[in-house]
């Protein structure tokens, strides 16, 4: 049902003009200059400066749906005509426009690192240029939120749930943010439309207004339990958590158990969560409700979760909203889309962007990512040229791409290529996994990394190096570019 519903929704959602104007002006320029059919290769990756030390890839499914539905309809062309900057020959050519290229990508839920290609487009230049903005929108946003969720999950051994819709920066951010949060580690959401679209289990209780709508807190709890006897989760901090809320919840839970029902638990939404949860846990246990869970909300983030852990908080599930859905401490992933190869005389020629800032200098050529494993654990990633072959029967030495004297040699190791084909000659060749399969992939990926690479404070730098061949190519192109200045 999940896939069918989403597919039908996408069919009616033409996002071809979800782009920046300069993509279209460049397309027009390529068309006029006869470069529109020239093959080009672009990489999507994120930079490390100021961002996360690792990321959880997400957004590929929406990128796929966008590519499959890519076309200019009559209203699109009429709108572009109204701008008065495009000629009729170009507008006429857009009527038959479709994506005919190749895309390879890292599957969603995969742990990736700065400067590694998350997605690569190989297509005629005007096609590859058009899709830049939309692909970055899908990948940047969902990867950012999935990464934030993974970081939050890393801060606690307890379950986390996504509660951010009301604080999201718009409906789409709330919907697709919930999907991404699920990939990153929130296996439930309060967002009902996300539950319907993507099959995410939905969860929730009542608000303070429910309690305030009755003559007493006890009456409010009793009515809620009467309506939802097998899903009774009570918010206990409307008036006084320990003197009123928890004692009244216990009374209601006693009545439910006497009738053969099993109460779910209580929710804390304010105050000293560590102190209140410890006290509430004792009260519930002493009353015979040891199986009742304690949920907590209230603008939670990594710092608060880590602090609650050190204070022996007795919280079973965290509902996380604002700080997750807005990626509160990191506004953008910083993903970019850069040309790495261009066809010249029938052959792809590596291209490099040079900058005074080393983090903005790109890695040239058509590439792949190889993850090196030893004893089942990830040790390093190697960005290689696409046609390179690694013989795992021989030792493999890698080196830091800037501090080249830093070297590591691996023996008795295994490798895994991270990127998989998604589109070939414009046709989808990738079996889109279910969201559950994506979440399972994320769980498996996280387990392959030592905790020091995943922690959110003083994270150990994971090795991401360039192969000798790629490093040689980059150095050659840098020297050549320097000679042109």
Describe the 3D structure.
The chain is built from 18 helices and 20 strands. Helix 7 packs across helix 8, helix 8 crosses helix 16 and helix 12 runs parallel beside helix 13. A hairpin with a 2-residue loop joins strand 11 and strand 12. It has 485 residues and is an alpha/beta fold. About 1% of the residues have low confidence. The longest helix has 23 residues. The strands form five sheets. It has a seven-stranded antiparallel β-sheet. It starts with a helix and ends with a helix.
| Total DSSP E strands | 20
What is the percent of helical residues? 25-40%
Q: Order of strands in the sheet with the most strands?
A: 12-11-1-5-3-18-19
Spatial extent as radius of gyration? 26 Å
Low-confidence blocks of residues? 5-10
Calculate the terminal CA-CA distance, rounded to whole Å.
58 Å
Mean pLDDT: 94
Q: Can you summarize the main beta sheet?
A: 7 strands, antiparallel
What percentage of the residues does DSSP assign to strands (E)? 15-25%
| Total helical elements | 18
Shape: globular
> What structural category do the secondary elements indicate?
alpha/beta
